[in-house]
Amino acid sequence: MKLKKYAVLLVVVLTLFMSACARNTANQRTSLLTIQQQGSFMVGGTTISEPGKFNLTNALKPQGQTLHGDHAYVFYQIPPKARKYPLVFLHGAAESKKTWESTPDGREGFQTIFLRRGFGVYLLDQPRRGEAGKSTVASSLAPTPDEQFWFTQFRIGNYPDYFDGSQFPRDTAALEQFFRQMTPNTGNFDVNLIATACSQLFDRIGDGILITHSQGGGPGWFTAIKNEKVKAVVAYEPFSSFVFPVGELPKPIQSASLFGELKGVEVPLSDFEKLTRIPIMIYYGDNIAKEPTIVWNKDHWRAGLEMAKIWAATINKHGGKATVVHLPETGIKGNTHFPFSDLNNLQIAALLSDFLKEKKLD
Amino acid sequence: MKLKKYAVLLVVVLTLFMSACARNTANQRTSLLTIQQQGSFMVGGTTISEPGKFNLTNALKPQGQTLHGDHAYVFYQIPPKARKYPLVFLHGAAESKKTWESTPDGREGFQTIFLRRGFGVYLLDQPRRGEAGKSTVASSLAPTPDEQFWFTQFRIGNYPDYFDGSQFPRDTAALEQFFRQMTPNTGNFDVNLIATACSQLFDRIGDGILITHSQGGGPGWFTAIKNEKVKAVVAYEPFSSFVFPVGELPKPIQSASLFGELKGVEVPLSDFEKLTRIPIMIYYGDNIAKEPTIVWNKDHWRAGLEMAKIWAATINKHGGKATVVHLPETGIKGNTHFPFSDLNNLQIAALLSDFLKEKKLD
């Protein structure tokens, strides 16, 4: 009788133990985030010095003083038992690392989605932007009302109309958040400064995957050229600074874009070839023209997508592994210029996870 | 015999279970961070609109377009079973939320220290700073070398000398990080804009504790006046905008400060009295003059500390609960203007934990 009692007690205790363990694991997977380490630092940058000697009794005079600027700001989070390669996120024009954080309607962005999936994440504010605002060059900021332009340029719709089936949330609060997350340059955009800071980040953290958006695409290619620790590049709607080997520059692509024709950039063949040694994935969203049109936003991105296809073909001709995915062709409709924060961003994240898995990068 | 075996097995299983539980708890306390929710959003702000009608075919013209600016950016992290009140952190002059993140030498700052202690944390970039850079006013940025001034002003030492026993790390890499984390205004500093954004943050998140630094002290007092959801204010080295009831303004404090004399600011008695209803704690660090001196940095902060003492006495005369702690008088030596990121920041954090516990705010 006593024996039976002990046996029952043992089963009860074992059940408790196992369910506690299971609960703990489930929490980590679905609800609670666990983080081994998080923090922030500055990387890259230049320094200017005013000639002369610093005088403590005349300390507002610049003589003998320094100014450190042009660095990137980095916020990072590393989960326990992180996957092999962390993800490094570089935002686009007029954006900061905010672009990868909460979406305009408050859902989780790629920062937290990929942290949950076990990746270390590094989010940059590029030199002369956001918390990396300290610049070694002068700048004038003018508050020019232009948000209806950006609504249209970023293919939420043709203002004030949203595109049919747009993956941008419809509430005005989300649109206000979207407008407010834009933040100005505090010095001119400088591809080389940004690529240098990104490359120094990889020197610090080791091998990783670079994820870029839009204007960040250009400095992204140059980062991968500078640093072989970049093990893959994933570019969302890259625009500008598509690099080609000397002598292989395609004709500029004419379009109705308000930014004019789209040109490639020449680099030495030996630099270009560095981009042929890593997997590269490029995604473009919806509402991009198939043929030239006077609808300038749709035509701007038509030029971008066409250039990306020419570029990937050039990479692949040189032995590389670049893929361009035009999302609507795979059945994923309605994406704006910001697929990673659109309403279907978990679907977009799944594509990235699949790519990393397929290339054995996760 | 069989009975004994079951008993032994039961003890073994129980021991395993308890040690697994203990390990899990210990991890959460010392090593792994657990987070229920994290994200970012913009709060507060104003909007300007250009008269006219937006014309899609002339979209670079400002007519009929808007510009949203002057909001704060907020990054937040909430641990599971968070304590009653979250901590809201407002940085000082030329800083961003970075000031509360990793220290210049890479240790954990108050963001992560207090997250580990179970507090929800909200970190702001104030309007026209950092990732809240979008401003409704014009601004000119000039890169003026001035870091040796700030080294001295912030009481790391009298440049190039560190103060004896300074709690600032001695390596040049840390000093470089410190210089690089400064980031410029993208529009004039506006106390009311900042306080309005902070107050709207409390409207959104509910009751909490406001933690300010330096220039953030002023908008901090106005936030607590605006919003009774501010349940306490903790101010590190507040400077500027000490508020007094009409008719009770003290004489300006003369000093050798390069910023000139220090004045209080008059507010209606009914506003002032709102600050008497919550606990207020103020901390100042080391190397502040006791008597007037021509050493301008030490004298600048002498004026600040004297004003803080007059202010706290006025608060308390009106029935309030304000305390000024001059850290060296409690035996804590060597703190710069940034006690929360100094080498002894865990000791500084312990004071804050003790204060919150004593006031039953944790």
TrEMBL record, chains A, B:
GO MF entry, a single one: hydrolase activity
Gene3D superfamilies documented for this protein: alpha/beta hydrolase
Signal peptide extent: 1-22
PROSITE patterns linked: PROKAR_LIPOPROTEIN
Entry superkingdom: Bacteria
Keyword Hydrolase listed: yes
Keywords, sorted A to Z: Hydrolase, Signal
Name this protein carries in UniProt: Alpha/beta fold hydrolase
Species of provenance: Spirosoma profusum
